[in-house]
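User: Before I run my own analysis I want an independent prediction to cross-check against. Here's the chain; please return only the structure tokens and, at the end, one sentence I can use as a sanity check.
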Amino acid sequence: MTVPTGRRERKKAATRRKIADTALRLFLERGYDAVGIRDVAAEADVAVTTVFSHFASKEALVFEQDEGFEERLTRAVTGRAPHEPLVPALHREVRALVRHCLTDDAAPVRRMVDASPALRAYEESMMLRHAESLATALAADLDPPRTATACRALARFVVDAYALARDADDPEAVVDEVFRMIGAAWEVTRPPRQG
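Assistant: Structure tokens:
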């Protein structure tokens, strides 16, 4: 996530962080369904409208790091070194994301998400949005260009690799296996050489 530079931006970021931290603590203590937006606002000492100015929904409070996940995936494409192959750059980033989500701190949140149909549905729509952003980054970055279908398929496979690995007994082995398939499929989409 981008670090805010001005005083006002830093204050807004601090308020957002305080609301998200408060919400997560309450959700984990009392249960996601037992806590309302008013409870979060009261505990964080902000107005309900302030909560909604930072978060579009109650579900968004759980996935506060959503933007950071999306930025990391797209930056793996747009920020890689010149001539660095695409698939290994994405592979490396997904492995790092999976390691992060498997920390002891993330386990209670993962259990809460898994137990809530509303949170699972929100996460699924969020992952589709990440895949679309990644597909856009791929289409803008590739030389030689690939079709929109190839970019969208790769993006979906990358996001799904994360989801499959996160729930596996050996997450890194799953990431590696899926990325071997992704690499092979990506090579098939390479346009034929001219000349």
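Sanity check: The domain at 66-188 is CATH 1.10.357 (Tetracycline Repressor; domain 2).
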